[in-house]
Amino acid sequence: MRDPDPRVVLGLHRSRHERRILIGALDLGVTALDTSANYLGFRSPEVLARVAGDLLPKFTLSTKVGYFPGTDRAEHSLDPVQLHAAVEQTARDLGREPDLVFLHNPEHSLAGTTVQSREVLSEACAALDAATAKGLCGAWGIATWDPTSLPPLIDASVPTPSVLMVRAGLLVGARTLDAAEALIGAWGLGAGRVWGMSPFSGSARAPVWYRVDPRIFLRDGSGYSRAQAAFRVAYRLPNVGAVAVGTDKPAHLGELVGALAAEPDERAVGEYRTLLRGRMRAQSL
Fold first, then answer.
1. CATH topology of domain 8-284
2. Is residue 156 predicted with pLDDT exceeding 80?
């Protein structure tokens, strides 16, 4: 078993929640596990407790609240009462308090004026802050898929999350990267308090990864695969301390853990950011 490495988080989005991947993660030193109340058809917490309850104490466990079962599909809500109840329910289903609870994609329920949206966001964050103070979870954070609407809402009235999770990687657009970095700056979060997610923007086997060679963004990419390079560079787009990645294959997870030894070429990454911003400006003309 390898020493724990907090830079890799095993994400359970689209996962089959099999015991073998959790055991494989522990063997690789991956001791951070991320799920959500709405994963696996709103059954993720209870399935985890059933198939791997004895393993969960070995993980730092994060989950998310914000989506709720609806008549035809999941519904999103930032209602403080619903959010607080969801944290309580998740702890019951897991059989333990999660170490971290994210407010899941708050942008989905923010509309109206900036003042109205800021008030809604502030009350939702306060609900998770209260749940943390009550001991229902160890800390709270925000996970946002599209952060572009959030930076104008952040002021002293909005509680500061312990962790911010945003999309990361070579396929993240300039607007999303800029918005994520604006949030990081507004809350004064260091890289250790920022997580990346979806480093392959869907799949490491997507056609784009056969057309583009991400190894050009490493100082010496000769000993690494394209998937490893894409994963390692995701820690610099934006600058994050951990990346959540999903897989049901221990071998694939092991490959990604091995990528942590690679060194990103900061100049190449910086040039890429400049190209992204230039493309964004050209598209806005």
1. TIM Barrel (3.20.20)
2. yes
